Amino acid sequence: MSIFHDSERHKNDVGEVFASLDKDKDGALNASDLSSFFSTYSSSVSRTDIENTLLEVGDGNQITKDQFFGLFYKHDAQHDPEEEFKVAFAKFDVDGDKNLSAQDLKTSLDAMGQNLTMDEIQEMIREADVDGTGMLNYEEFVKMVQTM
Question: Which end of the chain is more exposed for a tag (fewer CB within 10 A), N or C?
Answer without folding.
Answer: C
